[in-house]
Amino acid sequence: MKSLYTFLLLTVLAIGSLSGKEPSPADKKATKETVYLFRSLFRLQNMGVMYGHQDDLMYGSNWWYEKGRSDTRDFTGDYPAVAGFELGHLEHGHERSLDSVSFAQITEQIKAHFKRGGVITISWHPDNPLTMQDPVSKTRRQGGTAWDVSSKDVVASILPGGKNYKIFSTWLDRLATFFIGLKDDHGTPIPVIFRPYHEHSGSFFWWGTDICTDKEYIDLWKYTVRYLRDKKNIHNILYAYNTDWVATREQYMRGYPGDDIIDMLSLDMYDRGEKFGLELDNALGFVIQEAVKRSKLTALSETGPRRGMDNWWSSVLLPVVTKYPVGYVLTWRHSYGSRFSMSGGSGQPFPDDFMNFYKSPRTLFLKEIQFADIYKK
Ligand code: BMA
């Protein structure tokens, strides 16, 4: 069943690449491979939904960095199509992330996943550049971190003219160095999807909706993209706009930085109860419609199962995400040492029902997208 589907997929992809009317990344100077990635993803999102997993290549709840290992592959026999990585604490020039993952090893795994023809997505939970300087706030829970929402002045303070402008520019310099370092063995820059300042509709990060004004949020985005793209000449990044739970289109679009900045419209929604299916359906409805209208990519960039539910993957997630052209759905990290894995503590990295999701002809894992040669056509 899956191979017939793959054949059809390839046929449609081939027709798509001949039609000549294809959408392009916001960055007019995007590298050839980045343009191909954008177009491949654009076509693939009509074919099926890719599976993505955060830190899949770095660790699982009971193993730590074994090159080539992956919870998804251990369980299904295939890697996820999309591999997620996190850059929090790279801004300080540290060797390891806020989750203790080595940035050198992240770079290594990004190269490996690119070589296999997989998609790479990157999140960033930067510390709070304002409150981290205050010794008193550092004593509070989450003080000085991305989750420190004790001051509403932080975004204004890092924009041009603000007192933390210099510090934040240094942080962006470090990000730039990291992105520039993402090259394959031939020196080709590796395209990545970067999703900073995520879950803007919530107010649990210092860039959240009640912590800064919409204008400040938009300015932060514009400043960041122009810094990396125009000042640092980095052209291997696709930028993803993202919110947490939203009920209306207006709520979703609040703070949207513009079509000249953004390549992907994405949504994060975790299952917290029975209404999830309907709420996700509603939100994806307008998010996808906006994306299609603007010729942008789409993703359910973070989601996770309802506690105690055995058949969540096949009965809740799959029916909704296959109703719309959703590019990928990503579930979050299996944090090392945690007693409860996604399968509720059974010792497996996923519940049995994950196999139904994997086997569906509408889901795409690495082998299926390898056929599409996403960086070459
Ligand atoms: C969060 C949690 C944190 C983690 C952060 C960045 O949602 O998983 O434990 O530090 O993501 O990966």
Features:
377 residues; alpha/beta; eight-stranded parallel barrel; 11 strands; 13% strand; binds beta-D-mannopyranose
How would you sum up this structure, described in words?
Strand 6, helix 8 and strand 7 form a beta-alpha-beta unit. The protein has an eight-stranded parallel beta barrel. The mean pLDDT is 94. With 377 residues, the protein is α/β, with parallel strands linked by helices. The chain is built from 13 helices and eleven strands. Bound molecules: beta-D-mannopyranose. The site of beta-D-mannopyranose (BMA) has 7 residues, from loops.
Describe the structure concisely.
This protein is α/β, with parallel strands linked by helices. The protein is built from 13 helices and 11 strands. Residues 86, 88, 98-99, 125, 332-333 line the site of beta-D-mannopyranose.
Count of β-strands: 11
Shape designation: globular
Q: Structural class of the secondary structure composition?
A: alpha/beta
Helix and strand succession? Answer: HHEEEHEHEHHHEHEHEHEHEHEH
Report mean pLDDT, rounded to a whole number: 94
Uncertain regions: pLDDT < 50 for 5+ in a row? none
Order of strands, widest sheet: 1-4-5-6-7-8-9-10
Bound molecules: beta-D-mannopyranose
Query: Roughly what percent helix?
Result: 25-40%
